[in-house]
């Protein structure tokens, strides 16, 4: 079918963004929930922001000048994990193997970058993407729900919030990194530093020992804590929830019921899928849209 996989140029952002919007609209409207890409402008801005990110790599599928889909791969140094997404194919071109070609290109790139761990967050109502990812070697690790509402006010909730404080300096970052290595097996320093820079990274210390941190609370942010009580405190103390909500592992009954009782709604389901070595986080956690 004369299809070429090539790097995405800035001038391709509009076409790729429109396809992202159309592809997600088709899925979300079929299942009756809000689209991950709510407008064309959102889709285009997303592609532009990824093209501006030195840690993101993107290619598109081009058939004789007609763009049919695109994919991105992201690094989070020093984390060993590479992350795929978004992957979108024009609804009119689905079923032609384009998704597979784009994914093969991203996995080849991950291999070139020496990442043996590749992860993504999948939309489970879309059987086609689940099949594609499974055939490409991804394993389903964790079903998720995106939880949505305005930030909790202190008076709204019954958590003990006394020990939650902002991540202030390099010493705090190093303490959080140490905790992350215990829980994940590696540090997520880049994401933590970005959150610190934005003033949204928080941590909990009890008697000088770290028991949790949040690199912000939101769809692009992750958090880990020794117990659900501490995770609840990190959520309850978030001044802002970034983006449309945050992901919670669907198997964490205690956290989900607490969120529902505090007025959160479930926005949409998702699946964390992985290739390569995977250590399930050793404590309660909130994954980001990446992993
Ligand atoms: C997901 C998406 C990228 C797939 O693109 P695509 O070009 O249609 O994918 P492909 O044709 O390469 O692969 C789909 C595979 O699923 C298979 N498949 C689809 N439905 C199936 C089903 N119900 N049971 C078994 N296999 C199924 C197809 O046969 C194909 O496998 P094959 O190549 O071995 O025959 C595209 O549908 C899309 O953009 N969707 C909207 C956005 C989205 O959901 N993105 C992913 C977010 S997680």
Strand order of the largest sheet: 1-2-3-4-5-12-6-11
H/E element string? Answer: EHHEEEHEHEEHHEEEHEHEE
CATH topology of the largest domain: Aminopeptidase
Helix proportion range? 25-40%
For the biggest sheet, the summary is: 8 strands, mixed
Which range does the strand content fall in? Answer: 25-35%
What Rg do the Cα atoms give?
19 Å
Which descriptor suits the 3D outline?
globular
What is the annotated CATH architecture of the largest domain? 3-Layer(aba) Sandwich
Number of helices: 8
Question: Which consecutive residue ranges, at least 5 long each, have pLDDT under 50?
Answer: none
CATH superfamily of the largest domain, please? Gcn5-related N-acetyltransferase (GNAT)
| Strand elements, count | 13
How far is the N terminus from the C terminus?
34 Å
The helix/strand class is alpha+beta
Domain module count: 2
Task: List the ligand species.
Answer: coenzyme A
Give the overall pLDDT as a whole number: 94
- CATH hierarchy, class of the largest domain: Alpha Beta
Report on the structure:
The protein is an alpha+beta fold and 291 residues long. The chain folds into two domains: 135 residues, 3-Layer(aba) Sandwich (Aminopeptidase); 121 residues, Aminopeptidase (3-Layer(aba) Sandwich), CATH 3.40.630. The chain contains eight helices and 13 strands. The strands form two sheets. Strands 1-2-3-4-5-12-6-11 form an eight-stranded mixed sheet. A hairpin with a 5-residue loop joins strand 3 and strand 4. Helix 5 crosses helix 6. The longest helix has 19 residues. The protein starts with a strand and ends in a 5-residue tail after the last strand. Bound molecules: coenzyme A. The site of coenzyme A has 22 residues, from helix 1, strand 4, helix 3 and helix 4.
């Amino acid at each position: 079918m004369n299809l070429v996989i090539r790097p995405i140029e800035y001038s391709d952002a509009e076409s790729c963004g429109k396809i992202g919007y159309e592809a997600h609209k088709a899925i979300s409207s079929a299942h009756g929930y809000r689209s991950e890409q709510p407008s064309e402008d959102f889709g285009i801005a997303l592609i532009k922001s990824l093209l501006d990110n030195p840690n993101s790599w993107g290619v598109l599928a081009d058939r004789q000048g007609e763009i049919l889909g695109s994919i991105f791969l992201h690094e989070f140094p020093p984390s060993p994990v590479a992350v795929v997404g978004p992957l979108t194919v024009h609804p009119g071109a689905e079923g032609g193997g384009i998704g597979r070609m784009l994914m093969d290109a991203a996995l080849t790139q991950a291999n070139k970058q020496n990442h043996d761990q590749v992860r993504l967050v999948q939309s489970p109502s879309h059987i086609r993407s689940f099949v594609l990812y499974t055939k490409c070697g991804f394993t389903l690790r964790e079903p998720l729900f995106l939880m949505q509402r305005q930030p909790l006010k202190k008076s709204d909730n019954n958590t003990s919030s006394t020990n939650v404080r902002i991540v202030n300096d390099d010493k705090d970052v190093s303490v959080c990194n140490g905790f992350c290595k215990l829980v994940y097996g590696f540090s997520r320093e880049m994401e933590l530093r970005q959150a610190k820079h934005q003033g949204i990274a928080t941590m909990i210390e009890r008697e000088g020992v770290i028991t949790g941190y949040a690199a912000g609370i939101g769809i692009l942010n992750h958090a880990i804590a020794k117990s659900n009580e501490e995770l609840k405190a990190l959520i309850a103390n978030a001044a802002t929830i970034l983006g449309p909500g945050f992901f919670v592992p669907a198997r964490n009954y205690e956290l989900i019921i607490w969120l529902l009782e505090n007025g959160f709604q479930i926005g949409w389901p998702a699946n964390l899928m992985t290739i390569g070595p995977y250590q399930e986080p050793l404590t309660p956690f909130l994954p980001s849209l990446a992993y």
